[in-house]
From TrEMBL:
This is Triosephosphate isomerase. Homodimer. Pathway: Carbohydrate degradation; glycolysis; D-glyceraldehyde 3-phosphate from glycerone phosphate: step 1/1; Carbohydrate biosynthesis; gluconeogenesis. Its EC number is 5.3.1.1. The gene is tpiA. One of its GO terms (biological process) is glycerol catabolic process.
Length: 250
């Protein structure tokens, strides 16, 4: 099964419009590679400018979140139709920072996922355990629970439109990276979970990205792993040279 590889930059709450446009143009000037998707996820304020900056290139643009309703009295929220109207193709859902700081639950992940699929946005659903959960041997249980809740009731036809991202919370922004073996072990667990919940075909076609202190120096080892289909990059995506270095390492 030949799954596509994706290198996605999650810019989090960084970059003003001018900075975002400069970075997006630098990334878009990098080489396009067969079978490799390059995605940039800027903050909402910069989305439109980044879409324009990469227009005509191989680079795609996504949002970092979306609300489950299409519209309504939900101050400061952004909906699927709004993301589509600005030219976004993807959306990140359930990032651990949303879970940790903004009350994201499995239920809201599932509702956001439904909204993304309803509007033809390609969802990237994040899962991952904390350091305490890993140290107490709960990694598999935590992931199974996040997957079961976040993907509850999803059909196989819907699941193949979803990309998953395994992001161990202890490796995000800390400089600690899961070893190649640790990451592969969890990715294999997730793929086995998908095979059991759906079937082998779904499990084998679903992209599973790794996120957590991915840098040019460790990207090649991680991406060489059988069940790692790309990277969701935070800090190292904020600099063109390091993000292009990760792409080059694929
Ligand atoms: O979404 C990206 C992840 O949170 C990884 O962030 P990081 O590369 O800064 O550790």
């Amino acid at each position: 099964m030949n799954r596509r590889i994706m290198v996605a930059g999650n810019w989090k709450m960084y970059k003003t419009i001018d900075q975002a446009v400069a970075l997006a143009k630098a990334v878009a000037a990098g080489p396009a590679r067969q079978g490799l998707d390059v995605l940039l996820c800027p903050n909402f304020v910069c989305l439109e400018a980044v879409v324009r900056a990469v227009a005509g290139s191989h680079v795609q643009v996504g949002g970092q979140n979306l609300h489950w309703q299409d519209e309504g009295a939900f101050t400061a929220e952004i909906s699927g139709p709004m993301l589509r109207s600005v030219g976004a193709s993807h959306v990140i859902i359930g990032h651990s920072e949303r879970r940790q700081f903004f009350g994201e639950t499995e239920k809201t992940v599932r509702m956001r996922l439904a909204a993304a699929l309803r509007h033809g946005l390609k969802p990237i659903v994040c899962v991952g355990e904390t350091q305490a959960e890993r140290e107490s041997g709960q990694t598999d249980d935590v992931l199974a629970s996040q997957l079961a809740g976040g993907l509850a009731g999803l059909s196989a036809a819907e699941m193949v439109k979803v990309t998953l991202a395994y992001e161990p919370v202890w490796a995000i922004g800390t400089g600690l990276t899961a070893s190649d073996e640790q990451a592969q072990q969890v990715h294999a667990f997730i793929r086995a979970w998908l095979a059991a919940r759906f079937d082998n075909q779904v499990a084998n076609s679903c992209g599973i990205l790794y996120g957590g202190s991915v840098k040019p120096a460790n990207a090649a080892g991680l991406l060489r792993q059988k069940d790692i289909d790309g990277a969701l990059v935070g800090g190292a995506s904020l600099d063109a040279d390091s993000f292009l270095g990760i792409i080059a390492a694929v």
